[in-house]
Amino acid sequence: MLTSYAAHFDTPAGYLDFARFGPPSRDAVDATARALAESARADHTTVDGLMRAEETARDTAARLAGTDARHTVLLPNASTGLFHAALGIREGAVLVPRTDFPANHYPWRRTADLGRVAPRWLDPEPGGGVTPALVRAALTEDVVALSVSAVDFRTGFRADLAGLREAIGPDRLLIVDAIQAFGAAELPWEAADVVVAGGQKWLRAGWATGFATLSDRALESLEPVLTGWTGVEEVGLFDGAEHPPAPEARRWSITNLSPVTAAAFAAALDLVERHTVGAIEAAIAERIDELTEVVREFGGRVLSPTDPARRTGILSFTVPGRDPALVAKALHAEGVTPTVRADSLRLSPHASTPREVGDRVAAALSALANRPGGTGRAMIPTRQ
User: Fold this and answer.
1) Using CA atoms, how far apart are residues 264 and 53, in angstroms rounded to an integer?
2) For residue 285, what is the enclosing H or E element?
3) What is the DSSP letter of 336?
4) Helix, strand, coil: what percent of the chain each, to 5?
5) Helix, strand, or coil here: 355?
6) CB-based contact 300:318 (threshold 8 Å)
7) Which of 106, 277, 291, 334 has the fewest CB atoms below 10 angstroms from its CB?
8) Contact of 69 with 168, CB cutoff 8 Å
9) Which pLDDT tens digit goes with each residue over 232-289?
10) Which residues make Cβ contacts (< 8 Å) with residue 260, sequence separation at least 6?
11) In this structure, how many other beta carbons lie within 10 angstroms of the beta carbon of residue 21?
């Protein structure tokens, strides 16, 4: 556990569902309360003052992504960024993993409906992910982009972004959904042309927070189809005329965001920047190692990668012969919160997760093993 980081949170020790939602810090909660309280006491300075949180959050997100404010825009969620990217491509084919989260499918299905861009579905090996070799085998002259998750939501497979960039070459776009990685894993974000992320998972900023970064290549080649009134030049001039889209990433802005959620996002990003992504990632990796050992000790079948280079903070597994719902019930009895799927379970700790969570998971799987039809494994001793 990263103690200095963990001190900012009140999340229960057994919470292992950060890949679904990351409970925010007291910093983010307090920032939300302050912004909302200020809005309730509005005067002639209130709106302009509250709006400064958006600039602060944007600048911090840009630094964490290895870029600058000109190439960064705040968005209410990752899906908005993916639709901007999809609708901005004029024509051609885009490679998309069939195994990806649905949010990564529908933007491309909609562009196909409009007759603009056709998705070409990639089929990774079971338990694997999108690799440079898989992409190279699918490349044809009409492919104009690759859209991929930095981390697979099912297994935690970490994409080789630098290798994928090399595979598609310099002239195609690399569009990356970073929601399962940003703030919790160090990746070469500069390899991508578009990076989108929501803040409600590993960044622990709460819902309705997110951002996108755009490379110069993306700014030049993607049409700003969804540009709204806040994404144009001379945004404060209300003259009844259509203004051209802003030359920077702000062109993806549709309207003003909530300054209340922007304040929470700024606080959450500041916490990550101060404690560093590297330290957060290392603390998560330590918990993943321990949980993997426990799952295997009790006969669980690990579905996630074991290679540290391809692994992140997600541990997916099954217990052979046991319905995942029953395994989840045993975990709940020990105060453990997993993600429950129809065919598997997913444990996703954070840097604030204490070591004791391994004992809780061990107790749950031990109780399950000792029931009729269980594995019959003996309980492992409490870990020091």
Assistant:
1) 9
2) helix 277-297
3) -
4) 40, 15, 45
5) coil
6) yes
7) 106
8) no
9) 999 999 999 999 999 999 999 999 999 999 999 999 999 999 999 999 999 999 999 9
10) 32, 35, 36, 39, 50
11) 15
